[in-house]
Amino acid sequence: MGKRGPKPKSEKLFCWSSRLAYAIGLIATDGCLYNDGRHINFTTKDLQLVKTFKRCLNLKNKIGSKNSGFGKEKKYYVLQFGDVGFYNFLNKIGLTPAKSKTIGGILTPQKYLPDLIRGLFDGDGSFYSYYDPRWKSSFMFYLIFCSSSKNHLFWLQNILTKCLGVKGHGIIAPYGGAYQLKFGKTESRKIIKMMYHKPNLPCLERKRKKIHNALIIDNNEK
After folding, report:
1. CATH no. of 9-221
2. Fewer CB within 10 Å: N-end or C-end of the chain?
3. pLDDT tens, residue by residue, 31-55
4. For this UniProt entry, which segments traverse the membrane (predicted)?
5. Per-domain residue ranges of the chain
6. Beta-strand pair 74-82/171-172
């Protein structure tokens, strides 16, 4: 029997890694699986993020752009690629076409949950900070995960409770929009420490810097 050649690219992607888990988090939030059983699309406003996504999956495809539909300016970056094996892998772990309102849990090895969650946060999460004028030295900040699927946020809340003992402020849909899972300062610190568990991880740099600056301010308040 002759020597086996290199494994097809789609098989290599089945080997879990920090980069793969992060990319899957991005696909779960800003990605789309077409109904053809092959093609996957990732769309974002952040050029840095789509470049990071491309590196995480070792893709050679060209990054395109499109406008929002409300003007001629090209505001979104698009990366589309086809891979039957990877597509089927995503199906098996919980990502399917038309997933935005139906996605639940994502089957992920415990070791790579921090990277997956960082991808979910970079895709559809937000972070903001402010001083509360009612109290002296009252610098506040909140970390929020968003999704059109309530079941997905219930799954995420359960994972974070098991891993970190945090529960958040409940899952709500303000103004009838997407559901939100919101964490205050104390719980946010635990999640931040988990997501950025070592230096030089793939991430959306502007969010990481925003969080880093808020932590510096908060530490100086103590």
Report:
1. 3.10.28.10
2. N
3. 999 999 999 999 999 999 999 999 9
4. none
5. 9-221
6. unpaired
